[in-house]
Design a protein that fits this description.
The chain is mainly β. The protein has one domain: Nucleoside Triphosphate Pyrophosphohydrolase. Strands 1, 2, 3, 4, 5, 6 and 7 form a 7-stranded mixed beta sheet that branches. The chain is globular. The termini are far apart.
């Protein structure tokens, strides 16, 4: 179904789709500590993820972002929730975040320009400065 069939109206509230994934290996969770010079959430911990590209479904986007940001291959990728981030009044645009979990086959990650990747024991998660 094309845009014309969906009655998309300019100026109506729209969202930008993004993915966020929390990857586990045993009892540890892989988190990305944002680089200190990042525009949003510098030095804060979060999962890995990013934008959904045009024509890409959210599952494929999550897998692509995981590979790009970590170099990991994962299994058992599951959609766990969707968050609608409030609208920006100037642009009338919000962000729709698709939250996934996955299990990593290995622990070796490659460096990321987004920040520092760290395996964190689940019991320590609430000690961190999380997004």
């Amino acid at each position: 179904m094309g845009q014309a069939d969906q009655k998309i109206i300019k100026g109506r509230y729209q969202v930008v789709p993004r993915t966020l994934c929390f990857i586990t290996h045993g009892d540890d969770v892989l988190l990305l500590r944002g680089a200190p010079d990042k525009r949003i959430w510098p030095d804060k911990y979060n999962g890995v993820g990013g934008h959904v590209e045009p024509g890409e479904d959210v599952r494929s986007a999550a897998l692509r972002e995981i590979r790009e940001e970590t170099g990991l291959e994962v299994r058992d990728l599951r959609l766990r929730g969707v968050i609608n981030v409030p609208v920006d009044a100037e642009t009338n645009t919000g962000i729709l975040v698709f939250i996934f979990t996955a299990a990593a086959e290995a622990r070796d990650v490659r460096p990321s320009e987004e920040g520092t990747l760290e395996w964190v024991p689940r019991g320590r998660l609430l000690e961190l400065d999380l997004v």
